[in-house]
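Re: the pair you flagged

First of the two:
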Amino acid sequence: MPRSRWVGTAVAFLVLGLVLTLPVSAAMAATRASPELTPTIVCSCGTVSAEDANSSSELRGHGPPPPSSQPVYDEQLGITFAQSYTSMEYNVTAVAQTDPTLDTGPAYLLDGLSNSGFWYQVGVSYNWGPGQTPGTGFDMNYEVFDAFGDSVYPTQGGGLEAFSGPVHEGDTITLDLYFGTSGDVVMIAEDLNTGAYADQTFSAEGASYFAGLPNEVANANGFFTGLMTEWYHGAPYYANLAAVTYSTTVSVSSGWMWMDEWNPNTDAVVFGANASAPSSFASEPSTLREFSYNSTTEYADGTEFVTGALSSTSTGTGSTSHSLPYVAVAAFAVAVVIVVIFMARRRGPQETVTAPTYPSQPASAFCHHCGSQLEPDGQFCANCGAHRPSDEFGSSGVESNP
């Protein structure tokens, strides 16, 4: 097939792909039921005062824990933000890991303490309730506590919601927590790789921002605004978990790093520690600070929070992106171009076809006196010596075969 036809065929496939893919993209956007994601917005709102805070109270987990007949130990690694926000958005990688005793996995949570005292949590967990649906594999976690410290939503506590589609290990999950336009707080988890999502809303109870805590790690109920990795274990746990990175695009000015482990059934504390002062990230927002205690490690800088020991292969996240369908279109176009280049090179350069040529042969000539055959280049007849007229036989004396 000529090269022009190959190019024409490739262009036809490209156009067909665009025609087929763009309606699918539009349909995905049109049928998406969850609210739109909202980026992190810092506000110069108020913060929680020192008299309203209490560093001696254990930090509250995303409940309820597994059945009380089974001993459980709630491990929590977190950072408390010192500044306040009207919306928060963080990316976190979906990492699958399970406890050797309970087969439970961690929850990766974004937490907001509203200025009315309510506490909102949204996150993604792995095997939060092994064998249950939802509860096995990756699901969205959500829960709301009132200003008295009681879990009020969902009514049974510790909400789990299945994603609208598949979530795979290593996918980037965006967690969103913000105040909506209808007097509510919006909680969203969305897989940026597959487009799967889950969302919940609950009344804002008159609040308008998530309050930072510049003076203490948590308020009197153990609530805070920040990030937390939480994991229930079947026995006291004294080791690092696989590294998980939370990331955002807006730098945190400062935050308290902390960690603890306690038994929710008895309130007995296994261990607990927090930094003596909040870490400031204003001057060096990209420099990770390390905090470790009892063989457990976490790190933080202005835009990232990492729970678990870092290594050269630690899991990280990229910046937030919401254009998955269009990325698919671009990938299809690139694939078509690659196929065209490959086929053109495989066929090699085009050969030029020319008509065959034949060698010229001298014409025969005869003497006009005696009729003897003349030599092709001879000017005189070898038999009678007569001169060969040039005007009779032509100046060249040669003719070409047809």
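Second of the two:
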Amino acid sequence: MAVPVRRRALLACAGLLALLLGGAARAEPAIAAAWQLKTPDGQLVRYPQDARGEPTVLLFWPSWCPYSRALQPYVQDIWRDYRDHGVHVWTINIKESGDPVRTMRERGLSFPLLVDGDALIDRYGIERTPWLVVIDGAQRIVYTRPASAPSPIDVARTVRETLNALLGERALPLPASYPPPYDLHLRDGAAQSSHLASAAAADAEWKPWAKRYLEGIGADERVAGLAPLGAIADGKAAIAAARDIWTQRYGAEAVARQAPYRAYRQGTRWLVAGAAAPGRLGSGYLLVVDSVDGVVIRVADGSAGAP
């Protein structure tokens, strides 16, 4: 007698769950560390308390990582589809040099965001970004995105299959197709992860370089045709101003590829650099702006050999 379609689906989920949770020949899944983090507006989220014994997806990401950007729309869809079916999705910002709230707004994302997650890097063994895990209701990590994931679509499909295995009879239908991923960062055949070493250059490299750069700018240098921006209070405001000006000049896609960004103030001048990764300082877009009135002193493209 033929096995009903629904029963076959449940048997498949049960089989996948058995593979995920392991057998005698497989080590026990790692236990997800507990944590407390805040949303950008200060609301406290606690794990595992707020998961209430239900499956959880965690995505660790910085705004500068293009591989995180490629995966985010699929995590957005997973959150949208599963949030009312007993699954929690939290994305945790780590190793940040920019503004994750602005980044999400620019990318049309609305999934739950938690900030200042660097304390979890060691506790979750994070070696690269994006770092994504699926956790069952018993706090066991049953899936971790591999370093050599074929594509964001493969990751999204596996996450959905894993969640369905955990949900059992509450499993959701899998999508018949997936939208194509953001892929500008893949056209050179690069790997599918950013190691955390790809974050912004450390102060020991950045500050001396920035100081030398600013010292090479004339006292009367200005950019014609750009109105003053107003007072620039801090580094985040300087980076935001730089991204706005660069976007007008070079386009949003090009600016997105400039991450990570760094800002440095000397006297009344802010310097903002794009592509500010270790060993790459000066190779990306640059902005120098007065901190008092926002007069734009220099806009340059370091990759083009501009001053």
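Residues 5-21 form the longest helix (17 residues).

-B.
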